[in-house]
Amino acid sequence: MFLSHFYNYFSSDIAVDLGTANTLIYVRGKGVVASEPSVVAINRDTGAIIAVGQEAKSMLGRTPANIIAIRPMKDGVIADYDITEKMLRHFILKVHNRKTLVRPRMVICIPSGVTQVEKRAVKDSAIQAGAREVFLIEEPMAAAIGAGLPIQEPSGNMVVDIGGGTTGTSVIQDGIVIHSDDDATGGMHCTYVIAGNFRIPFEEAELIKMDKSRELEVLTIVTPVIQKMAVIVEKHIQSYSVDAIVLCGGTACLKGIDTTMEKTINIKTYKPHNPFLVTPMGIAMGCPTYTV
User: Which phi-psi region, left, alpha or beta, contains residue 229 (left: φ > 0; alpha: ψ -120 to 50)?
Assistant: First the structure.
């Protein structure tokens, strides 16, 4: 249902939430068809792609010297366009069952405030990866739409998107993003704290962070990081009239993150049923009306 706006207008295709930690892809009539780490493993000597996504992530810290695992996204933006192109190509082929002649239309979310040059680079990467046509939507707008916020109202609505590498704070008013900022504190920082607490590798700490049976333990360990995120949010709230905030992003799935943040900044904090899917849902729902 949430894809209806997008797919009533377009004849095929896919919506892409290209994140620092994970990439999610929706396909018409199928919903989520890919949710994999934004990681690519390549041969250092030849430049050949060895693995992409979950398989590549499993190689982190365990590969031979000539195999390196790369995260082409940094702090929510593309850091390596060549590797991003290869990653997108892999996902396009995967969701279309390796049919090399398929050239889907794509709508991709991007951070607010990116330059025209950066927008063009994202589009070019997707086109080179096999997309027929590419549309872009601002990430906070997509998150607000996916969360069901009344984005056309004159009062400000704040979205706090806590991704793998950043905490994004955005205010949407009268159908436009009037403020957006990203601070380099995100879910990966929670993982590092867990890894340090237990003196274990990053990958093992990730598993603990996602272990439902250890949610309260994890919350206790990462509370200082959440409080740091809350201070970031509070800094931006002071400049705008905001009655409440909505959390989204993968890290917002942590149990108790909403109540911890609410206690820290003393403002009503909501968390959707599935914060991880808010942005990708909004990508499709907001196209073509809110594409840029």
Answer: alpha
Of 253, 261, 256, 37, give the one whose Cα is nearest residue 169.
261
Non-local (6+) Cβ contacts of 64 within 8 A are none
Length of the chain: 292
Q: Which overall architecture, per CATH, does domain 151-271 show?
A: 2-Layer Sandwich (3.30)
Per-residue pLDDT at 6:
52
User: DSSP label at 99?
Assistant: -
Determine the longest span between alpha carbons in the chain, in angstroms.
56
> With bands split at pLDDT 50, 70 and 90, how would you rate the model's confidence at 200?
very high
89-133 per-position pLDDT tens digit:
888 888 776 565 668 888 998 888 788 888 888 898 889 888 888
What are the residue ranges spanned by the domains of the chain?
4-37+73-142+279-285, 151-271
The rounded distance, in Å, linking the Cα atoms of 161 and 169 is: 7
